[in-house]
Amino acid sequence: MSQIRFQFIEKENILQIVPLMQKISTEKDEELLAQRILEMADQNYKCLGIFDENKLIGICGLWFLTRHYCGKTVEPDHVVIDEAYQDQGIGKQLFEWIFSYCRTHNITGTELNTYVENTRSHKFYYNLGYEILGYHFLKIIE
Prior knowledge:
Layout: E1 4-8, H1 18-24, H2 30-40, E2 45-52, E3 55-67, E4 71-81, H3 90-104, E5 109-110, H4 119-127
Parallel strand pairs: 4-5
Antiparallel strand pairs: 1-2, 2-3, 3-4
């Protein structure tokens, strides 16, 4: 396997994540997706890139929050690894990197959402020590 590295993507380069985001996003319009990503970059959000040499092969958005019930947290979001690099342990390396980052930045926990039908991810997150605490609800306001 090649040398994999994890590095935050700078705001001025954030739109390079659009092709990977399109693989999992319900929003397929490239222009609208790019607009939303630029807005996210101005919030408590950072995007962690997964690189093989200089090739972007995966992404993981990280939302930084303080929760009344557990303190400072980071929420991994839209984890995408290129199909050619899946099943090579990169996802586990990614989360080990995130957990290490949390420890060195005084972040007390991580929490995430995953789709109900994505049972493969459920097993992965259980194996990392995550527990299901509730349901995620969404209402689009029109």
